[in-house]
Design goal:
Blueprint (H helix, E strand, L loop, with lengths): L1 E12 L3 E4 H5 L6 H8 L3 E4 L6 H15 L9 E5 L10 H9 L5 E5 L5 H14 L6 E8 L17 E13 L5 E9 L7 E2 L11 H5 L6 E2 L1 H22 L7 E6 L4 H10 L11 H4 L6 H11 L8 E8 L3 E8 L3
Parallel strand pairs: 4-5, 4-6, 11-12
Antiparallel strand pairs: 1-7, 2-3, 6-7, 8-13, 9-10, 12-13
Length: 332
């Protein structure tokens, strides 16, 4: 018998305010057909008011805990994957811990950009499998609207705000294909010059000059990022299947990072999946960075589309460059 990390609760939160392609047409020189044909996005959600990523993370976490009938006081660890923390410190995880009243938990933020949730889920699973913790809350949350330049039509069309959360707990099993089975995680710092936000860190702390030069907004070289993302996500998605001697036909759902519909399609073709096996919600939310995968997983779950024993593959690609895939088997 071995100790495996399984998902026992899921939750998500998307703000009520919707920003459509038609809305963006009033802000920048673009149109619905151009945006949708190149990205697959028609609308995205925006978090309004004096609220940060912790607000959405808390909402998603509460949903996951309620779903699993878990008392926040029983949580051991909270990992928040985000590139838009409320503040550099204290961590968003500490803020969420306080909001939940999870007074026995410690918490940490993890920055893996769009791959952040996979990094965090794999990390949380290790704490469960090692026996160190019994209940680990893993959250992906990003308020991308806080770092998007809404005069830049190449980036403002892509991003939205949301959060998703899962609860990990142990299950004793003699089947290695239980719960979180494996993850292939990669990074390549050469990609730093193609997708970044330069301002606000120790290299370029906030000044009038950094603000005037719009250094506190996200920047990406779209063509380069697209090329690397297509290959990176497709390669690791196929690799994890081959490693575990699985075929596309054995996968119930492929849950990819929702950055661009063409990237998703390329990875799905590489895995020889049909459309019904690919979870896509990019049309309604855009790219919510670390939230995309747990948000999509939660929607599938609450649509009653998951059954015990289903194989799921998750894959992502993001700034860093970072990328990876994760294989799990639904256990509840």
């Amino acid at each position: 018998m071995g100790r495996k990390a399984i998902i026992t609760g899921v939750g998500h939160y998307a703000p009520p305010k919707v920003l459509t392609n038609q809305d963006l047409m009033q802000m920048v020189d673009t149109n619905d057909e151009w945006i949708f044909s190149r990205t697959g996005i028609r609308e995205r959600r925006i978090l309004e008011g004096d609220r940060g990523s912790s607000y959405m993370a808390h909402q998603a976490a509460e949903m996951a805990l309620k779903n699993s009938h878990t008392d926040p006081k029983d949580i051991d660890l909270i990992i928040v994957a985000t590139v838009t923390p409320d503040t550099l410190f204290p961590s968003t995880a500490c803020r969420v811990q306080d909001m939940l009243g999870a007074d026995k938990a410690w918490g940490v933020d993890l920055n893996g950009a769009c791959s952040g949730f996979l990094y965090a889920l794999s990390t949380g699973a290790q704490f469960i499998e090692s026996g160190m913790h019994q209940k680990v809350l893993v959250i992906g949350a990003d308020k991308m609207s806080a770092i998007v330049d809404y005069t830049d039509r190449t980036t403002c069309i892509l991003f939205g705000d949301a959060a998703g959360a899962v609860l990990l707990e142990p299950q004793e099993s003699d089947d290695p294909h239980t719960g979180v089975i494996d993850a292939i995680l990669r990074s390549d710092g050469e990609g730093a010059r193609h997708l970044y936000m330069m301002g606000g860190g120790s290299l370029h702390p906030a000044t009038h000059e950094t603000v005037d030069n719009k250094m506190h907004y996200i920047y990406q070289d779209g063509q380069t990022v697209f090329k690397f993302a297509v290959k990176g996500m497709a390669d690791v998605s196929a690799e994890i299947l081959e490693k575990h001697q699985l075929t596309g036909k054995q996968i119930k759902y492929f849950i990819p990072h929702q950055a661009n519909l063409r990237i998703i399609d390329a990875a799905a073709r590489r895995m020889k999946l049909n459309d019904d096996q690919v979870v896509v919600n990019i049309e309604r939310y855009g790219n919510t960075t670390a939230a995309t995968i747990p948000l999509a997983l939660s929607e599938v779950y609450y649509d009653n589309k998951l059954e015990k024993g289903d194989y799921l593959v998750m894959a992502a690609f993001g700034a860093g460059f970072t990328w990876g895939s994760l294989l799990l088997r639904w256990a509840i």
